[in-house]
């Protein structure tokens, strides 16, 4: 991940997407704040959704809260997904049993960390959908206020879609019932993914060109996660350009990058799976996944600094999706050329590049994605959609759980 990468929708407290919005240096750029005693009219006012500053939409407290909830939800789940897959393994004496239980396929349904992860993503979904409802209640007539409503709807729908995608990607009631609970009812994975697609498609007509590319990138990613390759093909060429991404920035108080907190050299919650270390052969592989031996003997991850963004998706992922779609015969182009645009970022000499004449297979694509999309939650998706074991013992196909089980308290 380039440290100079630009981000969309900058929110200095939580996350950032820079480009046109990079001038905001305060959490919500001083929008209207409620008094110490808040009444309903203040909570439901347009100012809570944002304001226009020099022609640019700036998030209000409600939308900033949605971004912040998204950072918490993603931090929990992207790390947890690596513990189910062959990216993260447990240490001998972890501070938290959560990753150990996931790694060993013995997750207790009453583990407090499990309930926290579940609660965080549900809070994220509810905040985003509440923001949509609040925006839809507004009937502004002035041009700037109309822009505020539109900006709030784009942000809220972006996050509502991502929250639904997280729920379907990482949780299920049981291995025989692929569903989650939301608003006191069962929602199938198919319905959850459909909710994500609907929210992102609803946001597109209001979005500017940069926002559109973000939404098209997420719809492309959704197509891969759901094996709807027609959907991915329809959106891939309208997705991110180089240096664009979707990421959560950790800058508030003691909040750190989740992988740094769990897997840095001074942490003992989790470790880099030795099988992942073993497949790092080239300079690019090792630059993308730098590791070091901790004092206790396990592999620690040195990729992230404490305040580094938590990356969800970017142009590199779009390039690897192009490679896969080309292998599947769904788009034109040389798959190796698409892959090499990613590899060369980590080894500018070109020595790590794939030979242009290489004929890649889907097996090759899964191996490449494991290395260059690590720490984003995609490995779990790939093990599941390709029905492969990876380097897990027992193999992934033999595990009791292929998603995170819903907390026991939710089923009461």
What is the gist of this entry?
With 412 residues, the protein is mostly helical. It contains 15 helices and twelve strands. Helix 2 runs antiparallel to helix 4 and helix 4 (112-137) runs antiparallel to helix 5 (143-170).
Q: Which terms summarize this structure?
A:
412 residues; mainly alpha; two-stranded antiparallel sheet; 15 helices
How are the secondary structure elements laid out?
Elements lengths: L39 H4 L6 E4 L2 E4 L1 H24 L3 E3 L6 H7 L8 H26 L5 H28 E2 L6 E4 L2 E4 H15 L5 H17 L3 H7 L9 E4 L9 H6 L6 E3 L1 H5 L4 H6 L2 E3 L5 E3 L8 E5 H13 L7 H12 L15 H11 L5 H8 L18 E2 L7
Parallel strand pairs: 4-12
Antiparallel strand pairs: 1-2, 3-8, 5-6, 7-11, 9-10
Helix pairs in contact: 2-3, 2-4, 2-5, 4-5, 5-6, 5-7, 6-7, 7-8, 7-12, 12-13, 12-14
Q: Structural class, from secondary structure content?
A: mainly alpha
Major sheet: order of its strands? 1-2
Task: Classify the helix fraction into a percent range.
Answer: 40-55%
The quaternary structure here is single chain
Uncertain segments: 1-34
Largest sheet: 2 strands, antiparallel
Mean pLDDT: 89
Helix-strand string: HEEHEHHHEEEHHHEHEHHEEEHHHHE
Strand content: 5-15%
Shape: globular
Helical stretch tally: 15
Report how far apart the termini are: 43 Å
